[in-house]
Amino acid sequence: MMEGLDKIDLKILRALQEDASHSAAEIADSVGLSQSPCYRRIQRLKEEGYITRIVAMLDRRKLNLLTQLFVQVKVIRNDQQSLQEFTDYIRSFPEVLECHVILGAYDFLLRVVVRDMEAYEKFYFGKLSTVPNIREVNSFVAAWEVKSTTSLPLKV
């Protein structure tokens, strides 16, 4: 059990991860609570930062964003100012859905979603390659998704 969370809290979090569009009454039903206590728990979980935001998950394919790439980036300098400048650029690119600092041969791993390879080429040459301090970029096209989830592995 995680500190500050009981089994009911974890059940609520799991239910919200599966479908946050359910009402407090529906979630209460699924976790064995009445609506008011469930609603109060959800509010507490938000206030305490367990729930950071509630969003709609969109189908990128239906929106004609058919190409997903994983891009490794190696930078020239790892000083704080250079890294801050790099991350500021990356945060401004809507094509970059995720950016992770990684250990190993590269410094960053990006998940990029675009319409097609022509759009990636435009992104690469028009945006990514203009970012200062980049030494090397290595791109991998995802052929298909085996698993994609935003649900954390919560044990109840």
TrEMBL record:
PROSITE patterns: HTH_ASNC_1 (PS00519), HTH_ASNC_2 (PS50956). Keywords: DNA-binding, Transcription, Transcription regulation. Residues 5-66 form the HTH asnC-type domain. CDD domains: HTH_ARSR. Coiled coil: none annotated. PANTHER family: DNA-BINDING TRANSCRIPTIONAL ACTIVATOR DECR, LEUCINE-RESPONSIVE REGULATORY PROTEIN. This is Lrp/AsnC family transcriptional regulator. It comes from Steroidobacter gossypii.
